[in-house]
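#struct-queue
[09:14] JT: dropping the first one here, sequence first, then the structure tokens:
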Amino acid sequence: MNGTKVFLSISNGYRKDQLLYEKDLRNFILQRTHVEPVTVSCLCNKGESPLLKVIESIRESDLLIALALERKHTYLEFQKEKSLFDRIEKNNIYYTSPWIHIECAIAKALNKPILLLLPSNVEPEGVIDLTQDDYSIITVPTISKNKTNLGAPRLVKFNSYANKNCRMTIEKFLDAHFNVI
């Protein structure tokens, strides 16, 4: 449609629920816009630095949608550990890939519209801090794996009722930039 391009920033999933969510999101964008989203993984050969290709692809894209899947789990973390007054102790913190921050920052610097999908268990820091920026951030619902809450929370299926608001927001974002009738 109109040659509009979507850059899809994804911290590559490794669990079944993440891979399924990513697949459903891609299909949703494709069905809504008739455009295959561009991602880092399809841009470069193994061993090549993707940074220049990422910058160029985001520059050539009209908007960026980021899915900040968890990439790392920290069981115990100390911030400002040696401070007498500001020490913060956190446990069970999930972080996304640094590439999400990099790609969102590039899009922001290029004045591209950004829509960030942030699973509720991922730490909102840096570029994805809910209080620090003016682009749209949608919280993606997660559910605990079991009653003891051990293990990473799982993403609620993209096409489930619980994700209805998320899908509607993505639709509105895409429609605004694709002039969908």
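[09:21] JT: and here's the second one, same format:
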Amino acid sequence: MRRHQHRWLLGVGLLLISVLIVKFASTYLSTDRSSANYRNSLMNTRVLEFALGEQGDAIVQRANFSIQRSGVNSVLFYTAQNAQPKLRHPKYGLIFPYAYMVLFYDNARDTYGVDEVDMSIELPDAPLFEKMTDPQLEAYDRQVYELVMNLQASIQAVGWQRYIMLSDPRLTGRITYRFKS
């Protein structure tokens, strides 16, 4: 009789564990709660609108979400998380893809305002396989490539051009091999 009770308890325990595993998998691995859907819901409400030359505190006050502020001496660092950056400009305005982190800097000693913005843009979700097959890897690479090319095309479409510092080389890439001194 006692052996029968232990088997019954073991069976009930295994059944409860399997129900918990199924519940966990359906809750956290379903498409309804995917990170892409979460990002899309955040993107609609968390737009970080900024203009180059604008004071960092003005950007923070206008945002509808919290932005972390820190600094060393007069250099102020601002960190926004899970936002879609939007550059305000009368002629060259631009909306960037969703970024999980946006850093911008302002020097309180001058009147230049924000002159540098760093964005960590979210890449498409990689397939959750231990070993990706060639077609899966090619599909993922294609998604990442399209993201980068679309971003570059949108930047060029509004008229932005590459800025070359005076100290930077004028020739880059393979063309430097053909340059003769």
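[09:30] RK: nice, looked through the second one.
[09:31] RK: The chain has five helices and six strands.
[09:31] JT: good to know. The CA atoms of residues 43 and 84 lie 6 Å apart.
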